[in-house]
Amino acid sequence: MEFSRALVDVDKALELEPNHIRALVRKGNVHYMLKEYHKSTETFQKVLQLDPNNDEAKEGNQKVMAAINSTSDKPDEEGKRHAMADPEIQGILRYPTIQQVLKDLQEPPNGSQGYLRDPKIMAALSKLAAAGVIRLG
């Protein structure tokens, strides 16, 4: 199965019905297979907002987290290159505040603790970590 084609098909279905649970779960799974973990987890979270008891979305999220954790030990250069080509990731990395936080995180002692209390900064860093661009922890 060609996953990029599957993504086009599922996006067409979601244009007709944006909150279609089955289509959203499929989209999350396609992003997972493409190693677009940040998009996969975002999609599964949307499913869980619509249907908090959806087992497929819960399992999908667990698979994504396991994949992210398994790649945190060894960098996935192909995945990182793929993520860096994503306009959303590029946009996050262009934010001056994010650039400063990333710089501060590399210098001990971490002067970035104040930034880490900001939910928007943490969401951006989590997305970068899920995409494999940075490692947290």
UniProtKB/TrEMBL annotation:
Lineage: superkingdom = Eukaryota
Which parts of the sequence belong to the STI1/HOP DP domain?
76-128
Query: What keywords sit in the KW lines?
Result: Cytoplasm, Repeat, TPR repeat
Question: Which GO MF terms does the UniProt record name?
Answer: Hsp90 protein binding
Q: Where does this polypeptide localize?
A: Cytoplasm
Q: Which residues cross the membrane?
A: none
Positions of the TPR repeats? 21-54
* GO CC entries: cytoplasm
Indicate what this protein is called per its UniProt record.
STI1/HOP DP domain-containing protein
Species of the source: Stentor coeruleus
